[in-house]
Structures are given as structure tokens and as C-alpha cells.
Amino acid sequence: MEREWGLTCYAALALLWLLLFSPGASAAHGWRGEVRSVKVRTEVTLRYAATQINVQLRNPSSDPDHVTLALALPHNAFVSKLTIEVGGQNTTTEVKEKKRRRRPASDSTPNSPRTHRQGHQDIKRFKAQARVGALQDAVFYLTYEQLLQRAHGCYTCTLYLPPYTGKGEEEGDGRGGRGGSDVVVQVREKEAINDLVVERSGVARRYVQEKKVVSPSEVHISFRYNNNNNNNNNNNNNKSTDVSAIFISYDVERQADGGEIQVLGEFFVHYLSPEGLPRLPTHTVFALDVSGSMSDDGKLDALKEAVVDILNTLSPDDTFEVLAFSTRVRSLGVYRGVPREVAEGAAMVRRLQALGGTNFNDAL
Ligand SMILES: *[C@@H]1O[C@H](CO)[C@@H](O)[C@H](O)[C@H]1NC(C)=O
Ligand SMILES: *[C@@H]1O[C@H](CO)[C@@H](O)[C@H](O)[C@H]1NC(C)=O
Asked: What are the pLDDT digits (tens) for 39-49?
């Protein structure tokens, strides 16, 4: 997709695409321009994470040139909004996903607890470019959303950080709080938050952390980049290829039956996370809202992704049923958790289209 915008001074040509990131590539891979400031704001509400990331990129050359944002995103994140500010003008664009590859089944091989986050196979890379004048900046305002999945006994919110190196710190405030780099994460749950662990890898180790427990079910964590932050004995094994990321993992107080249904905005989410062994077969009913409003902002696509991801975690002796409701309710059938039927159910889910009004009552 390529399009011209009639921006005044530095007519911008923006090129947007999403592509999959090849594991092991360096953290700064694909970036162009000088990262002058980074602000990350994440709100996790009932395990649904919405992240706003603002990156100010400068063209350091004395000629007009383009700058490139090349963010890593969690594999199941979807970008809901991108605004690019160049020469004091904002342009908001629609973001299209370029291609999608199913994760290989081997991804589900169990790891020892909490080490899975160091494997970065599950990253996808988001790129956006803007053309800017000599020594001018472009600011990218990106919003992405993601349903956190429970794996290895916890939910993990991973924030991949841009390759900020401390330039522009002195520019401080005055222009909407720019300058420097900081990250603020807020987690709000219904149940008490347990086992909160914060980890950092790569350059993210330079971020100084401050944690505030607001209540048993609400935590506020902030990080600020500090070039002199050496108070950490892991410094010797930092490789430049380490992805710069902050990992926040936690669990919530669980109910005895291990299952839980929540209504998140217009989404229904069934959390299925039995703890005890032996594990009992489960029957899961997914009630999916396919009313017209779900066609906005890729909501239905996000819902489908979330459901398909959950289906892939079922065991062969589980069963599930998918209900689609708008003005009417229809069942897409009852399936067993064996690979062939999961694939069949997933294909039915993927074919769903949004239309009609919402009829919650009959579906429930
Ligand atoms: C551009 O959009 C961002 C994010 O919505 C906003 O913070 C900023 O002030 C806007 N800038 C201009 C020049 O309107
Ligand atoms: C850690 O990495 C940074 C840049 O990535 C480098 O400047 C620094 O020297 C490294 N520290 C050690 C102890 O190798």
C-alpha cells in the first residue's frame, strides 16, 4: 500500500506494512533515524492489554530523508491505530496486516516455567515510514491491543522497546512531555494479583523501575531510561542481539473450577486454565458476538484470533461448541478437541462475518 498525502512542508509519503520478524535479528533491525524519545503506556484490564507507544524519530541528515519505525510486537497483537506527526500535522492511517503465518505446532512444547519469554519466535514486526526534512522529526503514535494468554502458569505482558540510546533526554518537556524514554504499565484485575515478576532483557536493563501496589488487584509499574543504570550484575552477558524488552508476568487468584467467563467490552472471553492434575475433560461454549458493530477496528478479527488461539490449547478429550449471535443465534456445531475437529471449528470461526444487531440474551 502506498499513498501520497498533501502535507504542507514535508509532503509525506508513508509506507506501512506488517511483516513477520525473523528470530534472532538484532533489536535495532530495520530502524532508520535517530530515536529521540519513547513513551510507552500500557493498560492491562482483565488481561486485555492496550498499549500506546509514541516514538519520536529524527532525520539526522542534512537532506530530506525518510525515517523508519520498526517495532516488534507480540505475535497476537493487533494495531488499532497509527498517527504520524510530521511538520506539525497529523495523519492517521488505516493499518493492514500484510501476511499471516500460523505458528508452528512445536511452539507449544512446554518449557520450564518463565523461560518461554526469552524465545522471541513469537514476534511480529510492524514498520511505518515517514519522509521528513533535514534534521526534522516525525512522531509515530501507535496503539495496539492484545489479549494476554495464560502460559506456564502466568500471564505475560511483553513490551518490546525501540533502540533508544539516551539522545534527546535534555529536550525534556514543553512539547507534550517529550524527551527521554519511559514506560508506564497499569494492571487492573478483578481478582487478586499473584506472583508478579518484572524482567528486562537487552538495553531495557537500563530502565530504572518503580513499582507501586495500589490494591491487591491493581498494580502500577513505571520505568525510566537511565544511561548510568549499572546496578545490575547481568551486564556481562548482554548481547547486542538481545531483544530489548520488558516482561511483566503475573497470575490471578483462581477459582476452584479453573474456568471463567468474562464480558470484555463487546467480547466474551472464556479463560480456561485448569490447574490440578489429573486434568478433567472440559466442554467449552464460545458465544461470539458477530453483530455489525464488530466490524469496526478489526474487532471481529481480533476475536477470531483469540478464539482460534484458545482452540489450539484444547486437549483431544475436550469438546467445544461455537455459537455466533447477532440478531439471531446459530450454532456452528459441537466439536471434539482432536486436531482435525479443532481445525474444522477454527475454519468455521474464521469464516464468520459481522452483521445485524446484537442479541446477547438468547446466546446466553
Ligand atoms: C497528533 O496526534 C497525537 C496523538 O493523538 C497528539 O498527541 C498530538 O498532539 C497531535 N499533534 C498535532 C499537531 O495535532
Ligand atoms: C551491554 O550492552 C551495551 C549496548 O548494547 C554496551 O554498550 C555495554 O558495554 C554492554 N555491557 C557489557 C558489560 O558488555
From this structure: 999 999 988 99
